[in-house]
From TrEMBL:
PANTHER family membership: ABC TRANSPORTER RELATED, IMPORT ATP-BINDING PROTEIN
Record has S-adenosyl-L-methionine as a keyword: no
Transmembrane feature ranges: none
KW Nucleotide-binding (keyword) present: yes
Name of the protein this chain belongs to: ATP-binding cassette domain-containing protein
Superkingdom of the organism of origin: Bacteria
Gene Ontology CC annotation, any one: plasma membrane
Keywords assigned by UniProt, alphabetized: ATP-binding, Nucleotide-binding, Transport
Coiled-coil portions: none
Gene3D superfamilies xrefs: P-loop containing nucleotide triphosphate hydrolases
GO molecular-function terms, A-Z: ATP binding; ATP hydrolysis activity; transmembrane transporter activity
């Protein structure tokens, strides 16, 4: 058989950069942990785009790579491969000095263990003051910002208390205030409600929504609780270190004038065109290793491999 030279039409110009106008862009992100002789692929080619001003929930089972993603976005950990940009910062190539600046001013990070965010011998006021002192903000601005934040988070009367004198929900609010002290563009919260009862966690979630709305801070919140997707407009699900599906919620007004919230679930196609077909769909039609893809005029169908017959 002779081989014809490939003459594919060339695109007129370079395609636009993936997520060019977004605040956060992760592309084919890979993070491999080496523990002894064992390699763990915590992220396996994750794509994620977050627009400025968004509040996004990331859900996924334990071990799916959520904390790994958040520590990379926080500038605490570095990916093994891929691309990650936040604001104007390329997190793979930034210098050490820029990384310090980035962590101080661009992102606020609430870590998964509440205690890891707090210093036992400092009061709430002192803890919120600390990042601003590190950033050499003037004393008067620090005092004003601390009071504003504690008030806004509903803990103004706890300013002189230490962590041991607060409830779990109050400690979490202090941790959020500390993360917001230097007016970051992005707030990253890793399971902020993981150690809280359901009423308290709903209240903390409400607080994050308020931070997003009132301060215009872009919020990325990680949780293993799928119920929180009811509280945000967009939820991204991570499976096996990849984004696998998205739920978008929007308010729609029906003909009777009533407003309803409609949630729609989407599969996520990665940059190479891969889509994960949910397990119940695969099982319903016995889709296994090989399937037929059929291009229709307005959709693509996936059919079981029926042998020779089409
Ligand atoms: P999640 O936050 O969704 O529970 P993680 O990001 O913490 O998931 O972990 C993803 C995977 O990477 C898990 O299999 C976990 O065991 C592994 N992992 C996380 N951190 C490390 C580490 N420092 N060393 C080795 N393996 C790790
Ligand atoms: Mg985690």
């Amino acid at each position: 058989m002779s081989t014809k030279p490939l003459s594919l039409p060339q695109p007129p110009s370079k395609p636009p950069e993936f997520g060019r106008d977004a605040l956060i862009v992760c592309e084919s992100l890979v993070r491999i942990y080496q523990s002894g002789s064992v390699e763990v692929q915590a992220l396996q080619g994750l794509d994620l785009v977050v627009e400025s001003g968004e509040m996004l929930a990331v859900v996924g089972a334990s071990g799916s790579g959520k904390s790994t993603l958040l520590s990379i976005l926080a500038g605490v950990d570095a990916p093994t491969a891929g691309r990650v940009r936040v604001d104007r910062w390329n997190l793979l190539t930034m210098s050490r000095a820029d990384r310090v600046r980035y962590r101080r001013h661009t992102v606020g990070f609430v870590r998964q263990q509440t205690a890891a965010n707090l210093i036992p011998y400092l009061t709430a006021r002192q803890m919120v003051d600390l990042p601003m002192t590190a950033a050499q903000a003037p004393a008067r601005a620090r005092r004003r910002r601390t009071a504003e934040l504690l008030d806004m988070l509903g803990i103004g009367d706890l300013a002189e208390r230490r962590p041991a004198q607060m409830s779990g929900g109050q400690q979490m609010r202090v941790a959020i205030a500390v993360a917001l002290a230097n007016e970051p563009r992005v707030l990253l919260a890793d399971e902020p409600t993981g150690e809280l009862d359901s009423a308290t966690s709903a209240a903390v979630f409400g607080t994050l929504r308020e931070v997003n709305r009132r301060l215009g801070v872009t919020v990325v919140v990680v949780t293993h609780d799928p119920a929180v997707s009811g509280q945000v407009e967009r939820t991204v699900a991570i499976r096996d270190g990849r984004t696998s599906s998205e739920v978008l919620r929007r308010a729609a007004t029906g003909s009777d004038g009533d407003t309803q919230v409609i949630a729609e679930e989407y599969a996520v196609m990665d940059r190479a065109g891969r889509v994960q077909v949910p397990r119940d769909y695969r099982e319903a039609l016995a889709l296994t290793r090989r399937v037929r893809l059929v291009l229709e005029s307005d959709h693509v169908a996936i059919r079981p491999d029926g042998g020779e017959a089409g």
